[in-house]
Amino acid sequence: xxxxxxxxxxxxxxxxxxxxxxxxxxxxxxxxxxxxxxxxxxxxxxxxxxxxxxxxxxxxxxxxxxxxxxxxxxxxxxxxxxxxxxxxxxxxxxxxxxxxxxxxxxxxxxxxxxxxxxxxxxxxxx
Length: 126
Prior knowledge:
The chain is 23% helix and 33% strand. By secondary structure, the protein is α+β, with helices and mostly antiparallel strands. The strands form two sheets. It has a six-stranded mixed β-sheet with strand order 1-2-3-8-6-7, with helices on one face.
């Protein structure tokens, strides 16, 4: 069974996709931009602060699905500048603990709304 997950504690989808989908024992969370759900705008121009907002958005969606970030099994981090990698990594590690999720990180040419960071996740529901 597939179930759509949505919460107002994270920014709404800005296209034809869901914030997250429950499928079996997994939650697939769409890439989260550093959008403050209260304002609908980027929270900052700083990559570290943007990463924090992305992770807070992931956390809110996980909670809405009845799970938590500590059950994350895989993330993908997109950065517009790999020069921000070390700083973003410090923020990232404050949201997760061992065993850390599997992860891929890519530098991309651009992200929606001019964001510097986007993070998606696959989270266990059990």
